[in-house]
Specification:
The longest helix is centred in the C-terminal third of the chain and has 28 residues, at 177-204. This protein is 72% helix and 13% strand. It has eight helices and three strands; from the N terminus they run αβααβααααβα. The chain is an alpha+beta fold.
């Protein structure tokens, strides 16, 4: 009885943590540029098609205005994404296959797995319960796929930012609340799978 209660508790907690884990931001990326370097980059762009004389004039004007002495940073890049937001972004960028795979392993499979575990825990011993138990074990083989997906999303966002940063951009990454909710879901899902699997083996014996 205690094992059944623990199993139900872990399943309900996992479902409760999965929703914010999917919808809340998992990663925020910010890119800053030093104001003085931004001013220098602007001069380089303006003088790109000119001669050395025009470049020198621009450098002189920049020095007179004190642009090379500017302090502080300017925010030039910011992206915050949740798992579901990443799915929508991939779909919008015509990466439909990848979007479907992320949705499958980060949303659909976890929900089916937890609901099947919940159904198994609530059913009385019967043939249908044994079938549900076997199905639950089958789905549980993909238990690490959701962890792999969250790692891919973090890598995707970081790589996307890296492609836009150039040499001037100073990047800062911060994990969002969605990441920690998803980690909590993973822990509870592993524990619920352990209890359900143990109960299934005991029933077989």
């Amino acid at each position: 009885m205690k094992q059944k209660i623990a199993s139900l508790l872990m399943i309900v907690l996992a479902l409760g943590l999965l929703i914010p884990g999917i919808t809340l931001p998992v990663l925020t990326l910010e890119g800053h540029i030093e104001k003085s370097q931004l001013a220098q980059a602007g001069i380089e762009m303006l003088a790109e098609d000119g001669n050395s004389r025009s470049r020198g004039m621009l450098q002189m004007v920049s020095g007179m205005l004190g642009l090379d002495q500017l302090e502080g940073q300017v925010l030039v890049y910011q992206k915050t994404r949740s798992i579901w937001g990443t799915v929508n972004e991939l779909k919008a960028n015509n990466n439909l296959l990848v979007a479907c795979l992320v949705a499958l392993f980060a949303v659909i499979v976890p929900v089916i797995k937890l609901l099947s575990q919940l159904l198994y825990s609530l059913l009385h011993p019967c043939k249908f319960k044994r079938l549900v138990g076997r199905f639950t074990q089958l789905v549980s083989k993909w238990s690490m796929a959701d962890v792999f997906v969250i790692a891919l999303i973090v890598t995707y966002l970081a790589g996307n930012a890296d492609g836009q940063m150039g040499e001037l951009l100073i990047m800062k990454a911060e994990l969002g609340a969605g990441f920690w909710y998803f980690v909590g879901y993973c822990v509870c899902a592993i524990l619920s799978g352990y209890f359900v699997s143990r109960s299934h083996k005991e029933k077989d014996v």
